[in-house]
Amino acid sequence: PDVPRGSPDGDLRLDPLPWARREARAIGRLVGPHRGTVHLGAAASEHRMKEAASGVRIAHLAAHARADSAFPDRSAIFLTPGSDHEDGWLQPREIATLDLRGALVVLSACESAGGALIAGEGPLSLARAFFAGGAGAVVATRWPLRDDDAAFMMDRFYRALASGASAGSALQRARRDAIAAGRPAAAWAGVALVGDGRAAPLGPGEPRERPRPLSA
């Protein structure tokens, strides 16, 4: 997304993510134009995400994120606002109101699986917020990834999904490809799938609704 400087709690510096746009375009080619839409720059907005979430099979976000362990409600995925009524911070309380109904959510964003640890509850992560919104499975990261490493993993993940693999099998294939390519463990071991990984959202047959990968 085109993320403006400044935020509700002060000035925030977010470096450009050039590989995120390449990642989005590559996924768009793999999924096919008849099965998904890629939103880049100003179009990769919080407003568009809230509008497009209902009925999708896959929602993919390649963007900056922050996991605030001290104040979990201030964790966020940073998007373009897209509306005078939005600030561009897609936060847990907003994510929980999305109508995702069993969708696979892919968070190509740093530390999206991390958060404050609550006894008996686990981490209060951004990934957890998507389950509150009805997601069936979430692919997220446990630690910061290099921009190019994230793009490599997501390319291999979607290649496997496009062949009809389940989300769990697709992530296993992506990890094997990263190892075979000589990528360090830091590049692939932190990418995790939470939830039911048995669904094959790009398997044979037309999806119920078009998947809409939303990215930078």
Report on this model:
There is one protein chain. The protein is an alpha/beta fold and 216 residues long. Helix content is 31%, strand content 16%. It is built from 7 helices and 9 strands. The strands form 3 sheets. A 4-stranded mixed beta sheet has the order 1-5-8-9, with helices on both faces. It is globular and about 45 Å long. Mean pLDDT is 83; it is low at 113-124 and 205-211.
Order the strands across the largest sheet as they lie in space: 1-5-8-9
The number of helical segments is: 7
Order of SSEs, N→C? HHEEEEHEEEHEHHHE
Shape: globular
Number of strands: 9
Largest sheet: 4 strands, mixed
What percent strand? 15-25%
Model regions low in confidence, pLDDT < 50 over at least 5 residues: 113-124, 205-211
Query: End-to-end distance, in Å?
Result: 4 Å
- Let me know the average pLDDT: 83
CA radius of gyration: 16 Å
Class from secondary-structure proportions: alpha/beta
Helix content: 25-40%
